[in-house]
TrEMBL record:
Residues 122-388 form the ABC transporter domain. GO terms for molecular function: ABC-type transporter activity; ATP binding; ATP hydrolysis activity. Residues 39-55, 74-84 have a biased composition (Low complexity). Residues 15-55, 67-115 are annotated as: Disordered. This is ABC transporter G family member 5. SUPFAM superfamilies: P-loop containing nucleoside triphosphate hydrolases. InterPro entries: AAA+_ATPase, ABC2_TM, ABC_transporter-like_ATP-bd, ABC_transporter-like_CS, ABCG_dom, ABCG_transporters, P-loop_NTPase. Essential transporter for growth and development under abiotic stress. Mediates shoot branching by promoting the outgrowth of lateral shoots. Required for salt tolerance via Na/K homeostasis, at least partly by regulating SKC1/OsHKT1;5. Necessary for hypodermal suberization of roots, which contributes to formation of the apoplastic barrier. It is found in: Membrane. Pfam families: ABC2_membrane, ABC2_membrane_7, ABC_tran. One of its GO terms (cellular component) is membrane. The chain crosses the membrane at residues 508-529, 583-612, 618-639, 646-668, 749-770. It is a multi-pass membrane protein.
């Protein structure tokens, strides 16, 4: 019996009574429901009959159903519209699932005029997108003919490359629309076009929801975009990751208890209960599996129950079972009242049974758009029938790849699709025309979704409004741009960053060890310097080396944001939090470690070197070291917002800090620096903490006779010809000319602190300009 059913074609097996009856308990009651085409949302009530006759079907009756389904499928005219039967469990207990097909029908596949109202329709029309191609540059001049023959050279590369070429179609609430094609066919580009991730000037055509164009801010609120890569914090557990997402995306008016309930329900929906307390993990820490990681990534974006969900190859890199479980979760999301659009490389048999609409692409052109059920007849009309028992999508993709190797590419298939769509348009209008007439306006549909529990963050007050055409004066339905106020976002970001830092103590320990080892080396080299001119000269060297070393140790702040960059882009792309909240929380989390490092370096060097000033001098030394760490980490943080790669960032940091040290006034005096480089002297971060040290050394309190000896020693070391008379009469003036006493120690301290604030403001500006995350 099972061998007979396995022989059936895929689409007959999916709606077969035998397939439906496989999950029915032996003591259940069987009811037969007659489904008319496009009325999948309705199930007829069972006819009353005596209990004895209603208890079960005989084997002969079941075989008859199978034969009827097979005979209907073999008819070319009836395949799109034939009636079929579903056998369901009568009086099932709550929680029983029944068949997958019945779930799809109840979830709202194609609805008829008597079915529930279709609230959301995402329609895209004539989407076209082209990019400029860079010409291949060569050192050799272009030759009109190839060497050794008269054949012409290769044709010039076109200036513009078309990635999308007049793509049209629609995706509906309760359905999963899958975009398929070979690598480079334009799948991800099309998903980006739907999600408004391409600048409007470059994308031609229209994308509407319920016939209305989508404002960028509104789309960010009502939709979610799941990237192909799983961008998650590795040291957070699954439950913590989803809880932080809930705190970002769910409004402050929702109690924490309710947010936890939402997270627990989502964990069960995603099938992550067994991994709830397991960390995400990375290359150095064992964590959840690839399929679980992908489901967590999806869960972060659906925590607020969005109306539209875009996914870029959510099954990429997963095994067959994990991929099926991911798409099964997406089916449940669609059935809850969402529009789900995803790209997928090559779906399996089981995954194909969960999809409602398919859009095949070949080099940016549509080669098929329709339901999976219509694939056999489509390719049969094209003259390439799908072989028996072969996966239709595999056959289609193989055929498309074969056609792309031809000179004309898949042009014949593209033209066939256009004719097919023209021929099928009257039938689609006949069956689905009522949807356009009875669908709600966008404002009404969003209000209805919020009222039934979707779009959780949309229930709070905000600044983004929904306007229907012709109702500009009417009060708009408020939808918040951000779910939470600024201070709440900053608090959540700070807690998350502290938790991640706490679980990776080795990073801070290595940094602390580096500072203490550096301080120990400097302390042993400059041990107990005296007040002689030689000692004063050596103090100058200690100050310069100490300050430059502190700035160099701050370069490890560079990879902190670079490792989080794409997580930040993902979260801010759909208004999870403000960029200003991220910058301030980033500053708050990093400051305590700077305080510890400053005290560690000061305790290691101040007393060992023999610096003067007592307790006041020590605490000022701690303050100037802390200011140096503050400015240096701010500079590295700013560069991390400008560069996109650690390998590019480190050379920039190291070379720039070397320039700062060169122009600080230690190696060359200010009056000997060329005028055209003098501006760099005042921009040097090392200049100000270096000069601030002098008031806390014996240099400031030296008697006049000793100053003469100091200046003579400085003239020998600096190579400046200073006479005895000059030193005695104009010693303070000389120090002033060297910019040593141009500023007081407090002026130098506050200028260094101001540099730290300036670099963090520049970091914020770089995030504003560099995180728009749109194609051009």
């Amino acid at each position: 019996m099972s061998r007979f059913v396995d022989k059936l074609p895929f689409f007959d097996r999916r709606s077969s009574p035998m397939e439906e009856a496989g999950d029915i308990p032996r003591n259940g009651l069987l009811h037969m429901h007659h489904h008319q085409p496009h009325h999948s949302g309705l199930l007829m009530q069972p006819q009353p009959s005596p209990p004895a006759k209603q208890s079960s079907f005989t084997l002969a009756q079941l075989l008859k159903r199978v034969n009827e389904a097979r005979s209907d499928a073999s008819s070319p005219t009836s395949s799109p519209t034939h009636s079929h039967y579903t056998i369901e469990l009568g009086g099932s207990v709550p929680g029983s699932t029944g068949s997958d097909l019945s779930e799809r029908m109840r979830g709202g596949g194609d609805r008829g005029s008597d079915g529930p109202l279709l609230q959301f329709v995402l329609k895209f029309t004539d989407l076209t997108y082209s990019v400029k191609q860079r010409k291949k540059r060569t050192c050799l001049p272009a030759l009109p003919f190839r060497r050794g023959g008269g054949e012409p050279a290769e044709p010039e590369v076109p200036r513009m490359k078309t990635l999308l070429d007049n793509i049209s179609g629609e995706a509906r609430e309760g359905e999963i629309m899958a975009v398929l094609g070979a690598s480079g066919s334009g799948k991800s580009t099309l998903i980006d076009a739907f999600a408004n991730r391409i600048v409007k000037e470059s994308l031609h055509g229209s994308v509407t929801l319920n016939g209305e164009s989508l404002d960028s801010n509104l789309l960010k609120v009502i939709s979610a975009y799941v990237m192909q890569d799983d961008l998650l914090y590795p040291m957070l557990t699954v439950e913590e990751t989803l809880m932080f997402a809930a705190e970002f995306r769910l409004p402050r008016s929702l109690p924490t208890k309710e947010k936890r309930k939402r997270v627990q329900a989502l964990i069960d929906q995603l099938g992550l209960r067994n991994a709830a307390n397991t960390i995400i993990g990375d290359e150095g820490h064992r964590g959840v599996s690839g399929g679980e990681r992908r489901r967590v990534s999806i869960g972060m974006d659906i925590i607020h129950d969005p109306i539209v969900l875009f996914l870029d190859e959510p099954t990429s890199g997963l095994d067959s079972t994990s991929a099926f479980m991911v798409v099964k979760v997406l089916q449940r999301i669609a059935q809850s009242g969402s529009v789900v659009v995803m790209s997928i490389h090559q779906p399996s048999y089981r995954i194909l049974g969960l999809l409602d609409r398919l859009l095949f692409l070949s080099r940016g052109q549509t080669v098929y758009y329709g339901t999976p059920r219509a694939l056999p007849s489509f390719f049969n009309d094209f003259g390439k029938p799908i072989p028996f028992n072969e996966n239709p999508t595999e056959f289609a993709l193989d055929l498309i790849r074969e056609l792309e190797t031809m000179p004309d590419g898949a042009r014949d298939l593209v033209e066939h699709n256009k004719k097919w769509q023209t021929r099928m348009a009257p039938k689609a209008k006949h069956h689905d025309g009522h949807v356009e007439k009875t669908s709600l306006s966008l404002k009404e549909a969003i209000r209805a979704s919020i009222s039934r529990g979707k779009l959780v963050s949309g229930a709070s007050d905000g600044s983004v409004s929904v306007h229907s055409p012709g109702e500009l004066a009417a009060p708009a339905a408020p939808v918040s741009k951000f779910a939470n106020p600024f201070w709440v976002e900053m608090g959540v970001l700070t807690r998350r960053a502290f938790l991640s830092t706490k679980r990776t103590p080795e990073i801070f320990i290595i940094r602390l060890a580096a500072v203490m080892v550096t301080g120990f080396i400097l302390a042993t080299i400059f041990w107990r310097l005296d007040d002689s001119p030689k000692g004063v000269e050596e103090r100058l060297g200690f100050f310069a080396i100490a300050m430059s070393t502190m700035f160099y140790t701050c370069s490890d702040s560079l990879p902190v944001f670079l490792n989080e960059r794409y997580i930040f882009l993902r979260e801010t792309a759909y208004n999870a939090y403000r960029r200003s909240s991220y910058v301030l929380s980033h500053t708050i989390v990093g400051f305590p470690s700077l305080v510890v490092l400053s005290f560690a370096f000061a305790l290691t060097t101040f007393f060992a070197v023999g610096l003067a000033g007592g307790a006041d001098g020590f605490f000022f030394f701690v303050a100037i070291v802390l200011a140096s760490f503050w400015a240096g980490s701010g500079f590295a943080t700013f560069l991390s917002g400008v560069v996109t790669n650690v390998m590019l960032g480190f050379p920039v940091v190291v070379s720039t800090l070397a320039y700062f040290l060169l122009f600080s006034g230690f190696f060359i005096n200010r009056d000997r620096i060329p005028r055209y480089w003098l501006w760099f002297h005042y921009l040097s971060l090392v200049k100000y903490p270096y000069e601030a040290m002098f008031d806390n050394t014996p240099l400031a309190a030296l008697p006049a006779v000793l100053k003469v000896r100091v200046l003579r020693a400085m003239s020998q070391s600096l190579g400046v010809d200073i006479g005895t008379n000059t030193c005695i009469t104009t010693g303070p003036d000389f120090l002033r000319q060297q910019a040593v006493t141009d500023l007081t120690k407090w002026d130098c301290l506050w200028i260094t602190v101001a540099w730290g604030f300036l670099f963090r403001i520049l970091f914020y500006i770089s995030l504003l300009l560099g995180s728009r995350n749109k194609r051009r």
